[in-house]
Structures are given as C-alpha cells and as structure tokens.
C-alpha cells in the first residue's frame, strides 16, 4: 500500500505512526493520506494526457470536505448523486461546471438547484427524468446540458450488489432504446445534448468489460452521428477495482492502454467517474481491541469499531485486510498467533469486520483495517446510538483532524420529546 509502511515494527501512514494518531485522536478513527489520494488522481490524468479529458471523482466514495477540497485544487471534477453531494462539492471549492449529476431519482428541487448552480451535465437515466429536466429548465429559462446514461448490458463480473450494467438493473437506458430517446431529447426545447454516459459497476478487476461497454457506446455514437446528433463528451463512469487482500486489478496504465486507441478516434472529451480507486487504499480505519473472547470454536476480538463504522464486510461479505499497529518484535510471532474474528460490539451476528485472521492480539492493541478510504465513513451510521468516527488527514509528518468524532448529544439533538396535551 502506497502510504503505509512498518518502520521499526511500527505502522506508519506517510511519516506518522498510527499508534500516535490513535493516542491523539482516539479510536475508531479514519486516517487518510493526502499524497496517496493525489497520486492516484495524477495517475489518471497522466495516463490520459494525450486526450482532452476530465476526471470526475465519485463523491460517494469519500465525501469529506478536506478530500473534496484537495481534489478540487488538483483540478478534479466531481460525479454526484444527490443535492447534498453538490452542496458539499461547492462548500469544498469545487466548480459546478465540472460536476456531472448521476442517479435514478432526481427530483424537481434537485434539478432546479443543480441548474441554478450551473451544473456541467445531468446523466439522465430515464425518459421521465428527461422531460422533468426540460420542464425545470424551461421554468428557469435555461438549457440543461445532458447525457443519457446507457446500459450496455455487459457483465462487470463483480458482486451483484455493485454491478449496474446488466439489463435487469434499475440503472440507465437500454442500448436498444438509446437512439430513440436521444431523438426525443433533441426535440425538447430546453435540453442541450452534450454527451453519452455509462457506468457498469464497481470493483472491476478486468479490463474486458470496460472495453465491451466502450464498444457498445461507440456503436451508439456512430448511429447518433448518422442521425445528426453530435456529442461533445463520452463518460465512461467509474468502477476500476483495487487490491483489498490479493486481488490483482488492472492498473490505470493498462486500463488506459486498452481504451486509448478506441477513444482517440472519437475526437470527444473523455470523462471518468472513479471513486474507489482514488481513495480506497489511501485510507485505514484504526480501531482498538477492547475485549478478547477465545472460545472453544472461535476466537473473538471485540474492537471499538463496528458495522456502523464500516459496513462493507457485513453488507457485501467484503474482505478487507486487518493489520497490527505494532509488529511483534521478532517479526511474526508464531507462538501467540491465532485465528481471530474481528467483531464489533453491536447486537447483530452480522457485525464483523473480518473473520479468521491470523493475528497475535492483546487487549488494548490497535489494528488498522486497510482499504477503508472508500465507502467507509460515507456508509457509516449511528446504529446502536454509536457516534460516527473521527477522520484525520496525514501529509508527510503533518496530520490534522478533518472531522470531529460525533457526540452522543448530537445524535438526538433534533429529536423532540412527546408532550401530552
Ligand atoms: N459513477 C456512478 C454512476 C456510480 O454509481 C459509481 C458507484 C461510481 C461512478 C464510482 O464507482 P467506483 O469507481 O467507486 O467503483 N458501496 C459499494 C460500492 C458502490 C458503488 C456505487 N456506484 C462498496 O462499498 O463496494
């Protein structure tokens, strides 16, 4: 992992020991590396430098203002799926004109807000959304820039919950209907057709599904041209996978190499919407072992993070690595090593972070769940009235709190006791 290393047996994020961070900020705590985030962003722009392109970071992966702010400063655009995410992007200094708005359920209010702010493009997922956007744009006396999100019906070969490009998914407009819907869009008075979009799923490790989707989209671009509809950009969505344990995802370079020849012939600006690949391995979740509970069948290590902090293992059976903040001094301490289930304190059997991990543990030890920079904090909740974790950014030997740990009082601050009348 780029920003993580052991130095004298102590785990460091960039130049800072995670034990020190755990001591100063408490646990559970998300820690991110600024350099790691910006390096991946840069790798995308470097790989596609021969083309006019725009990386629109998928805000849902990690929407902390500090993360958005540093990406905005580096020149990134953003892919959003709610009004809330747009408000965040603007608060972090991002430009609305570099934002694409995805998602199947945009409301009148969402569209009105986005148009007023000067959104770059709506990725339209249905005919009714298209007509609604036209209606809102007419009311505001504006023309709304749109792409259609087409569903190329390719199998992304990923977990079914995060696969989005198949016929029976709720996303996008089928390849067969796309031309007709574009023609409908061309007839709408307040719609400006600017692009075409597809996103087939997340945590893809192979390049073939991306190429298959691109081929389908290119086919459409040609038939649109034949019908007098010219586009300015093609948006290939996100989805590039990362290594959590032993996956071997295609690199950004290989990804670019496979797509570039086909893309350069098009003469269009290329958009990408990567989320996970930019932030996942830039982040860890630090958690402390509270209780060790070895039993006859299983050894449980109960830690202070739980499924409310990191739901990926419970929701997708996702496997994420768990590593100690301090290595046993003789390297791997085989004597004290046992298989442990790393579990939270929530009253659910599904509350686990990892199963059967060979570790040498004692109460008070700090562990790091790696790959936690994406879909970690953003998917966290307050189940069991657990305040959400703090977040910290590291850069070189500097570190800074970028989100305070929530207080219990804040959790019920908006609740109102019932008054008998
Ligand atoms: N664009 C669209 C339209 C999307 O729906 C997504 C993710 C992305 C871009 C970014 O995809 P990425 O580059 O991050 O793969 N919570 C799940 C992942 C859900 C992804 C949803 N859409 C997880 O933790 O694995």
Automatic annotation (TrEMBL):
Residue ranges of domain Orn/DAP/Arg decarboxylase 2 N-terminal in the record = 40-280
Binding site residues for pyridoxal 5'-phosphate: 239, 273-276, 375
Q: Enumerate the catalysed reactions.
A: meso-2,6-diaminopimelate + H(+) = L-lysine + CO2
* Class of this enzyme: lyase
Where are the N6-(pyridoxal phosphate)lysine residues found in this chain?
60
Kindly list the cofactors needed.
Answer: pyridoxal 5'-phosphate
The record's PROSITE patterns line, in alphabetical order, gives: ODR_DC_2_1, ODR_DC_2_2
Residues annotated for substrate binding in this entry = 276, 312, 316, 348, 375
Q: In which pathway does it act?
A: Amino-acid biosynthesis; L-lysine biosynthesis via DAP pathway; L-lysine from DL-2,6-diaminopimelate: step 1/1
Question: Which CDD domains would you find in this protein's record?
Answer: PLPDE_III_DapDC (cd06828)
The Orn/DAP/Arg decarboxylase 2 C-terminal domain extends over: 29-373
Q: What is its EC number?
A: 4.1.1.20
Residue numbers annotated as active site: 347 (proton donor)
Q: Could you give a single Gene Ontology term from the biological process aspect?
A: lysine biosynthetic process via diaminopimelate
Q: Which UniProt keywords apply?
A: Amino-acid biosynthesis, Decarboxylase, Lyase, Lysine biosynthesis, Pyridoxal phosphate
| InterPro entries hit by this protein | Ala_racemase/Decarboxylase_C, DAP_deCOOHase_LysA, De-COase2_C, De-COase2_CS, De-COase2_N, De-COase2_pyr-phos_BS, Orn/DAP/Arg_de-COase, PLP-binding_barrel
Care to name a GO molecular-function term for this sequence?
diaminopimelate decarboxylase activity
Subunit composition and interactions? Homodimer.
Q: Which family does it belong to?
A: Belongs to the Orn/Lys/Arg decarboxylase class-II family. LysA subfamily.
Q: What does this protein do?
A: Specifically catalyzes the decarboxylation of meso-diaminopimelate (meso-DAP) to L-lysine.
Q: Which HAMAP family match?
A: LysA
**Record protein name field:** Diaminopimelate decarboxylase
Question: Gene for this protein?
Answer: lysA
């Amino acid at each position: 992992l780029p920003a993580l290393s052991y130095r004298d047996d102590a785990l460091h994020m960039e130049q800072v020991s995670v034990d020190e961070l755990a001591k100063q900020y408490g646990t559970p705590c998300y820690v991110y590396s600024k350099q790691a985030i910006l390096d991946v962003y840069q790798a995308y722009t470097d790989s596609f430098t021969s083309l006019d392109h725009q990386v629109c970071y998928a805000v849902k992966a990690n929407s902390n203002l500090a993360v958005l702010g540093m990406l905005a400063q580096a020149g990134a655009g953003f892919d959003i799926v709610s009004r809330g995410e747009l408000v965040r992007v603007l608060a972090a200094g991002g430009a609305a004109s570099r934002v694409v708005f995805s998602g199947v359920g945009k409301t009148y209010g969402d569209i009105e807000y986005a148009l007023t702010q000067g959104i770059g493009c709506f990725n339209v997922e249905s005919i009714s959304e298209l007509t609604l956007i036209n209606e809102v744009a007419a009311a505001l006396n504006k023309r709304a820039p749109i792409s259609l999100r087409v569903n190329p019906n390719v199998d992304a070969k990923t977990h079914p919950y995060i696969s989005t490009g198949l016929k029976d998914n709720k996303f996008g407009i089928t390849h067969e209907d796309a031309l007709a819907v574009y023609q409908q869009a061309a007839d709408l008075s307040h719609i400006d057709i600017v692009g075409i979009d597809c996103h087939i799923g997340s945590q893809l490790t192979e390049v073939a599904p991306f190429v298959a989707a691109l081929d389908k989209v290119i086919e459409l671009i040609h038939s649109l041209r034949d019908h007098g509809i010219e586009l300015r950009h093609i948006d290939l969505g996100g989805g590039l996978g990362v290594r959590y344990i032993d996956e071997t995802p295609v690199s950004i370079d290989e990804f670019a190499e496979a797509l570039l020849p086909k893309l350069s012939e098009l003469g269009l600006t290329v958009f990408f919407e990567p989320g996970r690949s930019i932030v996942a391995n830039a982040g860890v979740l630090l958690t402390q072992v509270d209780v060790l509970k070895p039993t006859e069948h299983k050894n449980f290590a109960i830690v202070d993070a739980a499924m409310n902090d990191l739901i990926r293992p419970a929701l997708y059976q996702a496997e994420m690595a768990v590593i100690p903040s301090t290595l046993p001094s003789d390297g791997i301490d085989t004597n004290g090593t046992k298989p442990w289930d790393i579990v939270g304190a929530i009253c659910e059997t599904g509350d686990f972070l990892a199963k059967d991990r060979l570790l040498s543990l004692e109460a008070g030890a700090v562990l790091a769940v790696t790959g936690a920079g994406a879909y970690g904090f953003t998917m966290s909740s307050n189940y069991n009235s657990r305040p959400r974790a703090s977040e910290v950014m590291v850069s070189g030997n500097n570190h800074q709190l970028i989100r305070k740990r929530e207080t219990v009082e804040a959790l019920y601050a908006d609740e109102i006791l019932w008054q008998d009348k």
